[in-house]
Amino acid sequence: MIETLRDLGRSGIGAFESLGRSALLFFYTWRGMGEVLTRPRLVLQQVYATGVLSLVIISVSGLFVGMVLGLQGYNTLVGFGAEEQLGVVVALSLVRELGPVVSALLFAGRAGSALTAEIGLMKATEQLAAMEMMAVDPLHRVVAPRLLGGIIAVPLLASIFNTVGVWGGWFVGVGLLGVDDGSYWAHIETTVSLRHDVANGLIKSMVFGVAVTWIAVFEGYDTVPTSEGISRSTTRTVVHASLAILALDFLLTALMFD
Amino acid sequence: MKQRNLELAVGIFVALGLGALLILALQVSDLGTTVGRDGYRLLARFDNIGQLKPRAAVKMSGVAVGQVANIYVDPETFDAVVVMRIDRRFDRIPLDTSAQIFTSGMLGEQYVALDPGGEETFLAEGDTITITQPALVLEQLIGQFMMGKAAGDE
Amino acid sequence: MSTVVDRNLPPALSALEAAVRIQGVTFRRGERVIFEGVDVHIPRGKVTAIMGPSGCGKTTLLGVIGGSVRPEAGSVEVLGHSLVGMSRAGLMRVRRSIGMLFQSGALFTDLSVFDNVAFPLREHTRLPEELIRDLVLMKLEAVGLRGAHALMPSQLSGGMGRRVALARAIALDPTIMLYDEPFTGQDPISMGVLLRLIRLLNDVLGLTTVVVSHDIHETASIADYIYLLDRGHVAACGTPEELRQGSAWARQFMNAEPDGPVPFHYGGPSIAADLLGVAEA
Fold first, then answer.
1. Partner chains of C (3+ C-beta pairs under 8 Å)
2. Within chain C, how many helices (H) and strands (E) appear?
3. Does the pLDDT at position A168 exceed 80?
């Protein structure tokens, strides 16, 4: 009994300690951002590694999510004779929720875990220590460009996801189920608001981008430098990032669309 | 060479992302339909606007020609004044055009329908449409029906 | 037993000008004591080896010199700068005059051999690219791998990788070179090459060299001075010759004898008691 309580206390303290370490990492990394901005090539490489390489999975998922929304939305709306509102259902679901959330979840699985594994491996093979001994701060040289690259990539990926998704819904609704083309787009245009829906969705995906990339680089940097430690950290990145995305999504939704 | 390919790939990616955002802004959201500085304003006075809201569509023969910009109550006549922005392309709307508030479908949103008249002179910036029909309010309808029924019985 | 040796460095060693002066350094990792009151003087221009059984804190000692391990007590002086309480910026300045070869080589896996060696030059200097090219090729020539400059680290053998890492470590012309277990996992030929390179670079470039290793014969063949660490203390120090005639413990270590003051058998009940169940009297 006492032992269980002690374990609970220990893991609580451990969680707080790693929270503190991750805050410090974030702080020191941002202090190195100025240095990174003078060398945009480093960021460019990371936008490639995280953004460009996630493009296929994001587009394909966006297409299918849009198509499913089109099918489900149609089946529900046709009961009310309101199937011309299909575009609104598809576009609002995507722009407000599914676009930012699903693309961030996919990013965590595709790019976040790769970031953790890469940085963890650099730590395990003493590359980070070697950099440190060469008087180069790995937080500035390795972590900062990766953080910035991820933050740039996620909102762009979410926008692509949304656009592809709206077209996926169009394909099912208009192309296969016979909803009128004009009313599909017209209802979207009159209902979806730039400021309330598109901009808020963009803000969401920016917040998710910071959270996911931060968690990924922290788990990599904080890993136990063994192969077992790296595989655990990679798993932790995906789990923690997914939880963070969903929790933040609730918070942001409550703030934005009250 | 490798470096140049990388730059190209990232460039295409960023262009795709920004392009997608632009499509969302222009085609998916209301930005594209907002009649900007190109439009002109018309006013319409209604007894009752029902559920009409700003940004609702203004239609003519079922085609969107503009958008409701603002709604307020005239402090003297207590009429509802609906300010509409009409696209510049539709600048030959006859002076005796009437306005009505309709609902699209059973559960749809309400919109302003313009019914063109036959005059040779046209509405211009700031003009007011006076021939209007208020929105149908279900409670009133039921009320009238009940009253009519009661009166008929007597 | 060993503290006596600690305080009495051989006169020959303490008389030399020190590049690194470690005094009374204590370091714990959690409950475990890694060092207690360790004194080490690294004489300028010499090859000094730090040796000892596995887990005696040899690598940690390199960390103390490089400033990545902060001791709890004692003073660390590198090239006249005291590292204790030094700011991060100051530490980074001192590190520019230190080169370190890591046990795994620690080459950046996403950069080519050329870019690996060029890395410290590009980070710390504003030299034009042609000059960096010349410098990198010269450093690679020094370790005999100029021809391999276009390869990726994954294409190198273990020994070649370590030589590239060596070229990278000397790229900024350091004053002190630290080697962490440079010989582990090397075949005899690349071991010979590394030994020769360490000695040669030290003498030709006028470096101060610290080698951490437990390959006794190889290390003793190039070292001017040897420190033997044991359980957090300096157990013995002096020239290889002096140690071979030193205490029983030092002799056992230097001659790699399986049994001696460090027993072959881990302490426990006698074998008769364990196997036959005979109660010990």
1. A
2. 12, 10
3. yes
> Per residue in C129-145, pLDDT tens?
999 999 999 989 988 88
Q: State how far residue A58 is from chain B, nearest Cα, in angstroms.
A: 11
Domain ranges of chain B: 1-32, 35-142
Size of interface A-B (CB pairs under 8 A): 103
Q: Which residue among B13, B30, B32 sits closest to A52, beta carbon to beta carbon?
A: B13
Nearest Cβ partner of A129 from C99, C102, C107?
Answer: C102
- CA atoms within a 13 Å half-sphere pointing along the CA-CB vector of A126: 17
Looking at residue A168, its amino acid is: G
pTM score, two decimals? 0.77
Residue B133 near residue B101, CB atoms below 8 Å: yes
- Say if residue C7's pLDDT is above 60: no
Give the residue carrying structure tokens 């070869």.
C101
Q: Is A197 on the interface with B (CB under 8 A)?
A: yes
Separation CA A65–CA A62 (nearest Å) = 5
Which backbone phi and psi does C224 adopt, to 5 degrees? -85, -40
Residue of A nearest to C168 (CA): A134
DSSP-assigned letters across all residues of C10-50: -HHHHHSPEEEEEEEEEEEETTEEEEEEEEEEEETTSEEEE
- pLDDT higher than 50, residue C3: no
Contact: B21, A82; criterion CB under 8 Å: no
Question: What is the ipTM score, two decimals?
Answer: 0.80
User: Do C233 and C227 contact (CB within 8 A), yes or no?
Assistant: no
Q: In the block, which residue shows the tokens 């205490």?
A: C247
Chains C and B contact (Cβ–Cβ under 8 Å for 3 or more pairs): no
